[in-house]
Structure formats: structure tokens, C-alpha cells
Amino acid sequence: MTSQEQLSETGWRALAPEAGTMTVLAGGVLVQALTIFLTTSLMPSAVAEIGGQSLYAWATTAYVIASVVAATMISRVLGRLRAIASYLLGFGLFILGSLLCAVAPVMQVLLIGRAIQGLGGGLLAGLAFTMICRALPEHLWGRGTALVSAMFGVGTLVGPALGGLLAQLGAWRLAFVIAAALAAGLAVLAPRVLPQTERATTSDPLPLLSLTLLVAGVAALSIASIVDGDVWVAVLLIAAAVLLVVFIVVDRAARGKVLPDATYAAKSPLPWIYLTICIAVTAVVVEAFTPLFGQQMSGLPPLAAGFLGATISAGWSFTGLVSVNARSARARRIMVLGGLTLVALGLLLSTAIQSVASGDLAVAGWAIALVVAGAGIGMAFPHLSVAVMSSTDDEGDAAKAAAGIPTTNLIAQALGAATAGVLVNAGLPSIDQAAINLFAGLGILALIGVGAALVTVRTARGLRAEPLGGPAGRETSPSVETRSAIP
């Protein structure tokens, strides 16, 4: 097949030559996503055996904070170790953390294991998005991103079911062994299929102050979602907001930055793209509460309630794999703007359903509305990710920008969890009012996301130019550099 024919190939078969690479990239994200939801299901059983009830919530907090730290270091890790060694480091940390969790005699040891797991998982998630723009030709970025993103949905569906089964069998430790074994298999495959990238020479210092502020902000958000008392929640939310604003100010002025330089350039579209991604992904935090609503309002059994909680991820995964068929610039802009509109519509529709219905009818309505919201994320996310990768011609900045995608996701989840916790707690003890607060609050936030999407589609060059290998099979976007797998 000639290079021109390869550009013209737009179906999923175009990824076939990259099957090995995509297996490692998608597999790395899968083990990271699977572990998040697997551990949530296992923690009650773990606490019953090893104690540490007061530290329960820190199992998630430690993982998220460590993942944020790792995700912000992707470009530096790749610059020093190159692709294969970077992946082996990520898998190695993940395996070490998983095995430490599996043998933990007390909660404190399990938390150390979770932090090490988070470092590995953050590396794997960040490397996946970064390697898409390094290892794949540009006309495959959308499909690569869609496939990798779909793994979050797979983790949401499989994690709770597998975790619940193993917990019921009294084998919660085995879950961490399974996660380690899966990562080990991918680690063996990685050197055989990944392209080797050159080391990047950089004199930028480590952004310790920026990173500290970011981690402190995320930690404050995470803690705000688990503390009791409205005053403490308000204090932590304000502290988090201040820390994140200071982070942006400090990072912008720093020589060594967490975010790419292009983020702070005049008229750069990157802040708007990141904001749009952040708001879209925030809707996923609904999944933490809908199982509770389903059980208490409709008497759903735990398994059915768990699948109700996965409706947004199911819609995201399926639609994300389909939306990449949008090839023209106009179609991609419609996907982004229409996707954010569907997110808002699904959440506000859930609010309306809860206001006029109850019990089984309300739960059935939620399932449909939340699939719609998830479909909106799936429509927009692949094209927003490609817009990030296409935001600069500099490969180093493009890699750093791509690594910012999972960082943005993690920050969005922490921010969303804290906000959702405040909204739900404000409605309790009425579970009906708690549901209305949650759906309405996140729906209003999604409307703000529609505004951010409007700015994004007008400014992001990745959504303005025709893709490589466009409808006529010719290169219609010569201004956007195609990055080779091996520099």
C-alpha cells in the first residue's frame, strides 16, 4: 500500500499495522481505570480484614494525587528514558504497588501501595496520549484517542463487577494480583511493539513549586469531598480554588512549567480546549452517586445499581468509537459542540425526570438520560484530544500538551467529586432532593461547557483545518506537521 493510500484509509482497519502499539497504549489505560473501580468495590472487605476505617477515603485520595504527580512528569520522563523504558517504569511501579496492596497487613501499608500504584497508573495514562501523537500518523490520532478513551468505560463496567465478585468470595487480595499480572503481560509485550523515541534534551528545571501547588489544590478538593461539616467543606473548596489560581500564576511565570508554554501564549486555544475537556469529564462523577440513588429510591440490587452507575461510561465508550468517523472540519466541530450540548441535555433531563417522577420510573429515565450525557462526552472527547495534539508544531510541546489530557481528567474528577459531594450533602436527608441538586448543579456546569466549546471550535486549528487524508484522500492541512514514530 502506498503512503497516499494509507492516508486515504480512514476505517478502523487503518489501525491494524499499529495493533501491537495500540494494545500496550490501550492496555496501560485499562489497568489504570480498572484498578480505580476495582478498588472501590474491594475496600469494605479490605477494611473488615486489616482495619483502618478512619483512613478509608485515603485509598482513593492517595491514588489520585500520585497519578496527578506522575501525569505532569510525562514529557520529562520520556525525554530522559525514551518510550520503551518509560513504559517499563510505569508498569514496574504499577506492579510493585499492586503487590504491596495484595500483601498489606495494615491500612497504612495498603495506602503506600496505592500511592505507588497511582504513580504507575498516572504514567501509563499520560504516556498513552503522548505516544499517540508520537507513534501514530496524524490521520490516526482520532481513532487512537477513541480506542484509548474507551478503556475508561471498560474499566467502569468490568471493575465493579470483578471487584464485587472477588469481595463476595473473600478474595480481595487476589484482585491486586490479577491487576499486577495483567500489567506484567503488557510489560513483556511493550519492548517488542513500541517504537523507540529519541531522548529529548531539555534544560528546563523541575517545576517543583508549580507541582506542589497543583498537588495541594487537588488534595484539598479530594479531602473536601470526604470531610463532615459544611464549614470545613467550604474552607477546603476555597483553599483549593486559591491554590489552583496561584498554580496557574506561578506556572505561567516559571521557566520549567507543568503545562506547555503554548497554554499561556496570547490567543492560544489550549486553555479553552482543556476547560472544555474538564467540564465534559466532570459529568462522570455522577456515577459515584447513582448506584446509591437507585438502591434507596427503587430498591435496586447492588449489581443492577452498579450497572446504573456505569451508564455514562457506557455511552462515552460506544459513541467515542463511532464519532471518529467524522472526517471533515465541519463535522468535527459539530461533534465537539453537539457533544457538550448533549452532556448538558442529559444532566438537565435527569433533573426534570427526578422532579416529575419517582421510584422505578425515575431510575429508568435516568438510565436513558445518562447514556445521552455519556454519548455527548464520547462525541467530543476524541476530537478535543486531537485538537490538543495539533495545537503546536513543536513535538516537545505537543507531547507535553498531550500529557496534559489525563492531568486535566484527574483534576476534573477531583473537582467534580468535591462539587458533587457538596450538592448531595445539601439535599440530604432527602435522597430525592440530593439527586435533583446533583443533576441540576452539574447540568448548569455543562451549560458553561457549551460556551467553552463555542470558543474552542472557533479557535482550535485542529478543528478548523481538514485532516490529513481528507475526503478526497489528499493532504489538505499542510500547516500541521505529521510527526513520525521515530524522530
Task: Note down, in words, how this protein is organized.
It is a single chain. The protein is mainly α. It folds into 3 domains: 14-197, MFS general substrate transporter like domains (Growth Hormone, Chain: A); 206-253; 256-468, MFS general substrate transporter like domains (Growth Hormone, Chain: A). Helices cover 75% and strands 0% of the residues. It contains 17 helices and no strands. It has helices at 3-8, 19-50, 58-71, 74-102, 107-135, 141-168, 172-193, 208-224, 230-253, 270-282, 290-298, 302-309, 311-323, 329-356, 359-389, 395-427, 431-459. Helix 2 (19-50) packs antiparallel against helix 7 (172-193) and helix 3 (58-71) runs antiparallel to helix 16. The chain is globular.
Write the layout of secondary structure elements.
Blueprint: H1 3-8, H2 19-50, H3 58-71, H4 74-102, H5 107-135, H6 141-168, H7 172-193, H8 208-224, H9 230-253, H10 270-282, H11 290-298, H12 302-309, H13 311-323, H14 329-356, H15 359-389, H16 395-427, H17 431-459
Helix pairs in contact: 2-5, 2-6, 2-7, 3-5, 3-8, 3-16, 4-5, 4-7, 5-6, 5-16, 6-13, 6-15, 8-9, 8-16, 10-15, 10-16, 10-17, 11-12, 13-15, 14-15, 14-17, 16-17
